[in-house]
Amino acid sequence: QVQLVESGGALVQAGGSLRLSCAASGRTFSNSAMGWFRQAPGKERVFVAGISRNGENTCYADVKGRFNISRDNAKNTMYLQMISLNLEDAAVYYCAAAPTSWTGSCYSRLDLYEYWGQGTQVTVSS
Length: 126
Description:
It is a single chain. The chain is mainly β. The chain contains no helices and 11 strands. The chain has strands at 2-7, 11-13, 18-26, 32-39, 46-51, 58-60, 67-72, 77-82, 91-99, 115-116, 120-125. The strands form 2 sheets. Strands 2, 4, 5, 6, 9, 10 and 11 form a 7-stranded mixed β-sheet that branches. The protein has a 4-stranded antiparallel β-sheet with strand order 1-3-8-7, with no helix packed on it. It is globular, with a radius of gyration of 13 Å.
């Protein structure tokens, strides 16, 4: 079991930056691939970025180059650094955990993630 709590969402101007955090409790964080998803109003929840259990492999949606995912297994925390934010990045951002025996796997499929946080709102103003 793992509980996930996101933080760092805020109102930011277009072109600005934010860093989201996902704090995990429980014993399965280091045994889980982790991911960030986002959901804009009226739209489906979509994959943003993922990171393997060991942190060595990452995968991204079309945000690569602007977003960077990382994790600190010693702190049970995952991060999403976002730069050059635009209006299309506005959404509720969710972190998710996918327990797996594969240390180097990164997952983009929503259905592979078992645990979810409650989300943090990112608002981008023009």
